């Protein structure tokens, strides 16, 4: 009788404990899911990594993905370097994120923006493509160290997703253009889908610079 009496007391206590654990778990999940994305100023949302003069007659916007092998191939083919070498400040080249190809692409996009916050986007951009597909969080933080970024600042930016709103904004723009893959480009408002060659860009740039 004593043993049965002990069990009858134990079960309600166990049940209450389980209920408390469930409530705590639900609260933690709710808190995590409801945590707001850090807000960014209008100035930061309007800021993009770029090369050349913002007042140039020609603006090329690339919507790219660091996890995209085609983007990496386009970058390593040197088309952007040819454009910069040929036209200099006559062309304003702008990078915007469209991280849709791999599961690691969004975090790599945010990492690129964190590097931009420290003024070293293009160094980080080049290193990401050189190291891809190694784009884990640990990899991204290691690359920041390799190019001399303030690692504590970078790690905080990445861990807290401080630039997620900027990445989301660029993604929304790309979808608004109807882009379904990367790389995709806008040249003075005209869409270019896929990894265009230097000659293709030249055929668009030259008439604009000539006033045609």
CATH homology superfamily name of the largest domain: Glutaredoxin
What value does the Rg take, in angstroms?
24 Å
Low-confidence stretches: 1-10, 24-35
CATH level-1 class of the largest domain: Alpha Beta
Count of DSSP-assigned helices: 10
Strand order of the largest sheet: 1-3-2-4-5
Separation, N- and C-terminal Cα atoms: 100 Å
Q: Main beta sheet: strand number and arrangement?
A: 5 strands, mixed
Q: What's the architecture of the largest domain in CATH terms? A: 3-Layer(aba) Sandwich
Estimated helix fraction: 55-70%
Q: What's the number of structural domains?
A: 2
The structure class reads alpha+beta
Percentage of β-strand residues: 5-15%
SSE string, helices as H and strands as E: HHEEHHEHHHHHEEH
Tell me the total number of β-strands.
5
Mean pLDDT, to the nearest integer, reads: 89
Description of the molecule:
With 212 residues, the chain is of the alpha+beta class. Helix content is 58%, strand content 11%. The protein folds into 2 domains: 1-35; 46-209, 3-Layer(aba) Sandwich (Glutaredoxin). It is built from 10 helices and 5 strands; from the N terminus they run H-H-E-E-H-H-E-H-H-H-H-H-E-E-H. The radius of gyration is 24 Å and the shape is globular.
